[in-house]
Structures are given as structure tokens and as C-alpha cells.
Amino acid sequence: MAQGAELRQSIKEVMVEELMLDFEASEIGDETAIFGAGGLGLDSVDALQLVVAIEKHFGLKIADAEKAKGVLQNVNTIAEAIEKDA
Predict the structure, then answer these.
(1) For the chain, what are the domain ranges?
(2) Would you give the distance in Å from CA 71 to the centre of its chain?
(3) What is the 3-state secondary structure (H, E, C) of 9-51?
(4) Euclidean distance between CA atoms 79 and 21, whole angstroms
(5) Taking a C-beta distance cutoff of 8 angstroms, is the pair 50, 42 a contact?
(6) Which fold, 4-85?
């Protein structure tokens, strides 16, 4: 399993591909908020798609909404959860 910068790049690529985002993976910062106007601007439907994509590509199961709130903040929080789960 990839770690560090390589893992973060993979997460960005999965987000762009699976969520059909209108920008490149290189445009997403590790600390860029996933939700809200100041970040990527994703919504609850995107959140469900992202949870499924993370499980499919990285094997991380996000079982409940409370865990999702902590994990789906930015690329770093997703990467940390994947690394912790590995």
C-alpha cells in the first residue's frame, strides 16, 4: 500500500476520476476542505460516492456518519485513516 505523498496523490486521482471533478488532481491541496464553499464544494451525494470509492480503491470501510465526518475533511485526513487502517 502506498504511503505519504504517493498515497495522497492516489487519493486525489481517485477523487477526480470517481467524482468526475472539473479540475486536475494536482489542483487539490492536501489540506483543501472537501465540503463547503471554501473547498472543493462537494455535497452529500459526493460524500457517498467518495466513501464507496475509498473502500473500493483503498480498502478502508467508513461504517458510520460520525466516522465519515472525521475522515472526509481533506486529503490528509483520508490518508491518515487509510494508513492507520493498514
Answers:
(1) 4-85
(2) 8
(3) HHHHHHHHHHHCCCCCHHHCCCCCCCECCCCCCECHHHHHHHH
(4) 19
(5) yes
(6) 1.10.1200
pTM for the structure as a whole: 0.93
CA distance 13 to 21: 10
C-alpha cell at 31: 489540506
Q: Report how far residue 35's alpha carbon sits from residue 68's, in angstroms, rounded to the nearest whole number.
A: 12
Please calculate the CA angle 36-39-42 and round it to the nearest 5 degrees. Answer: 55
Per-residue confidence in pLDDT tens, the chain, 86 aa: 678 999 999 999 999 999 999 999 999 999 999 998 889 999 999 999 999 999 999 999 998 989 999 999 999 999 999 999 98
